[in-house]
Amino acid sequence: MSAPAPTSWRTFARGPIALVCLFAVSGLVFAISEWMAARGDSSWHFYVFWLAYFLVLVPVAWRLLSMKTPRTHRNALVVGLGIWSMCPSLDRTGNGPLYYDEFSHFRMLQDLVRVGHPVSSTGLLQIGANFPGVELVTSALYHLSGLTLWLSAIGVASLAHVALLFGVYVLVRDESRSSRAGAVAAIVYSLNPSWLFFDAQFSYETLALPVLVWGIVLGLRALRAREGASPRAQTCQAVVSGILIAALVLIHHVTSVIACAVFLGVAIGATVQRRRRGAGERAGLVVPLRAWAMAAWALALTAARFIAVGHPLVVYLGSPLHFSKEFSQLLSVLGIGTAVHTPFGGSLAPAFEVVASYLMLPILAIAFVWAVWGLAGHRRELSPLVYVSALLGFLFFVSLLLVSSSTYAESVHRSWAFSFLGLAIVLGMAAHYTLNDDLEVRLFSRRLWPLPALRYARTGTIALVCLVIVAVGGVSAGTDTAYQFGGTVVPDLDPLYVGTQTQLVATWFDTHARSKDVVWADRFIGRPIAVGSSVRIANPNGLEDLLVLSPTIPKSTFWAFINDKVTYIVFDRRTGTIPGNPPSYWYVRDPTLVSSDARKTIYPGRIACLTWATPVYATSDYEILSVTLALLGHELEDGGLAYLPQCDVGVRR
Amino acid sequence: MTRRAMPRGLAIGLIGLIALGVVLLLGRGGSAGSIRTILGCIALLVVPSWLFGSLIDDEGDVLVRFVGGLVTTLAACAIFGFAAYEFGFRVAAAVFAVPLVVLIIVLVVVRSSGPETPKSQLAPLGMAVALGLATLLSAWITHEVLPATPIEHTFSIEAGRATATPGSVTVTVAISRVQWSQPIDLALIVGSSRSAVTVSTGQTTVQLAVALPKSTVSCPDRVQVLAANGAYLALRVTCVGW
């Protein structure tokens, strides 16, 4: 007698072996999509990428939400999902730093290992040495494990990435006492536009986010009055949460502020709840006194760190706060002024991704309103964290008003890591009540949810379609396609500028230059040089840039070379000559920061005519010039031009 | 009769301490380096995480213990490193190893002084690791078979000093190519004199020479090598026989 085949197949398909096979195939297909993109002969890699993505996400989401899945399996699936989600960024970056922030942090790590303390004078990320947590942790792994620096870096980033997703899951699981609700929150958070690439890179936010989330998880465990909870365990949780908050202020500035805001919000919410509810209803409530103590700890540490760092932090965080500019950009969003930054302007993303990005917004808005409205009916049972989360989630929609401003676009993208945390918690809690048939949305006397016409199957289909749209739209909205896929080298596009030539130039510096040397280079080539050698990069946005930007070169420009002790110039001969691009110098990220004339004109020819800089190495497109500062000093003192006048030729738009 | 948690915690702590001690004795590279990597990861990532985890989770959830403990261990390392830096120590292996020894001992003592914690099942951890490894290994192997790094077709030029005699100037230019299959046109320019050479594929050095006009009375102080695509070098000159 033979066993019935369909049963055995079903058993196999449900088993862990089938899942392991799916994950393996997905990893393989991700790598194939990256290979196809590198060949650059079609756009099929987008479709292959999404095939790999949904090959895992859809069955895993189904299993996570299935009632039959045991809690321990759900835990394993969330951790597996976290590891799997590192695959696209690891495929893209390969054997060294690639993304803009990765170069800065990796150079800080190299300096930390080389000199034994955090260094801020490299010229890449001035504030980095004041928040060296991720580099310190990575150097611990490097020193104790003997791994290479890069493997240590991606090891720490990967562990942090996985811990973040699992932390979101545990946070909502604790709040709702339902692992299915936790799974919903984890899936929602994994749709965060920054999740697959930006938050998976080696940078301080990547470590700060899980430290924040686990600080909240353990903090709330310690703060709750739970029946049967051991005071000893709660003390340990409070101490560990305190350690995490203490570490957070050494890792990342903005995340420390978010931690303060969350604990402060929880403390205020707990106090209000305590006053409204009777003294008898204490089980599960956050104890206000403990919450205030935790908030005070977070505030004191953050304030102390910020005061200790002082001026550099004000300069770093304060630079986007030009309120007049902010106002004009807000007007531009409302159609009254001129938008400086067009969403998807020049993007190579296929049309379906762009459409999904726009569709994602109403879907998220409807889901958020539905969740908040539904949760309002349970407001007496909710933890203060849910209120704080609703506020954080709301900020996602507020941030969209500034997404098209050139000054704020980057900050808006970075903020989504936090606002999606709010969305994930709110949607996870709403899902918890929905899955228990206990969520009701009413408009006056009319019941809007649950809809009688919607059966489980249909609700599931709608949820699946929404998941697909938000996933595709999120990646497209949060990441430039160049962060997602490699391809032909493009000199003025981050990170596609990294290629064989940048490697040749970096290797030349590694062979010929010393750690005392200072290089003036554009914002692109400067980074591979910084991690490929021990030289420093000249002050970003310094006066040196006027050498190629200003119609008449002020003397202060030449003195800047002397003051900054620049010993090498690296210049890309393609600067200002890329067809279709405005001929500006590539260091200037925000064209509004330079004069209007400088935005229209570039003077690359001057580089060849500097009487005090000798070209010593050239690749097809890059030029390395050795600077003789003494000669420049003599020329300036003698009243000379410091360059040959016949080269004073600009390229006009 | 249930087993007390203390022996397990003590055993794990001892493993961590031994691993840490061995790590400090082993060098990088070779089979010793591989052992060091494994022991280093155990000493830094596994043991303290496990000990921390058993303090913060009272439900016996292996993944909460391990992941929560791991984040705490990483946070503790950030604090150790920063404290060492603030006290003027060089951030190196000892800065992390010494506090880790103290930390492991403290965690073992705290863990053993409390009530026993529920024993956790390792299966979810194994399943999560299997899923992650399946993804990463398959992606890595595919990446090795189908490399996704585009190679730029490029060349570079570099030269030492030029040598100028009263009749001519000569210079040796080193050329390196990366998938650059076209010939490279180089010109040596000295004042108004110029000579051009086409460097064929496979040549890694080329000697350029230009005859100086008879009217030249002084040694040129600088000469230029110019490629057809605009790449250029300006060379200092060694004067011979002037």
General description of the model:
The complex is a heterodimer of chains A (653) and B (242). Chain A is mainly alpha-helical. In chain A, helix 8 crosses helix 18, helix 11 runs parallel beside helix 13 and helix 16 packs across helix 18. Chain A has 3 domains: 358 residues, no CATH class; 92 residues; 153 residues, 3-Layer(aba) Sandwich (Rossmann fold). Chain A is globular, with a radius of gyration of 27 Å. The radius of gyration of chain B is 33 Å and the shape is elongated. At the A-B interface, helix 2, helix 4, helix 5, helix 7 and helix 8 of A face helix 2, helix 3, helix 4, helix 5 and strand 1 of B. Strand 7 of chain A pairs antiparallel with strand 1 of chain B, so a sheet runs across the interface.
Could you give a short description of this structure?
Chain A has 653 residues and is mainly alpha-helical. Chain A is built from 26 helices and nine strands.
Provide tags for this entry.
heterodimer, A: 653 residues, mainly alpha, Rossmann fold, 3 domains, two-stranded antiparallel sheet, 26 helices, globular, disordered N terminus, B: 242 residues, Immunoglobulin-like, 2 domains, eight-stranded mixed sheet, 23% strand
Q: Roughly how many Å apart are the termini of chain B?
A: 102 Å
* Structural class label of chain A: mainly alpha
How much of the sequence lies in strands of chain B comes to: 15-25%
Radius of gyration of chain A from CA coordinates: 27 Å
The proportion of residues in beta strands of chain A is: 5-15%
The number of helical runs of chain B is 5
- Range of helix content of chain B: 40-55%
Strand order of the largest sheet of chain A: 4-3-5-8-7
Low-confidence stretches of chain A: 1-6, 589-593
The profile of the biggest β sheet of chain A is: 5 strands, mixed
Counted by DSSP, the helix tally of chain A is 26
Largest two-chain interface? A-B, 100 and 92 residues
Point out poorly predicted stretches of chain B. 1-5
Helix content bin of chain A: 55-70%
Count all strands of chain A and give the number: 9
Topology order of chain B in helix (H) and strand (E) letters: HHHHHEEEEEEEE
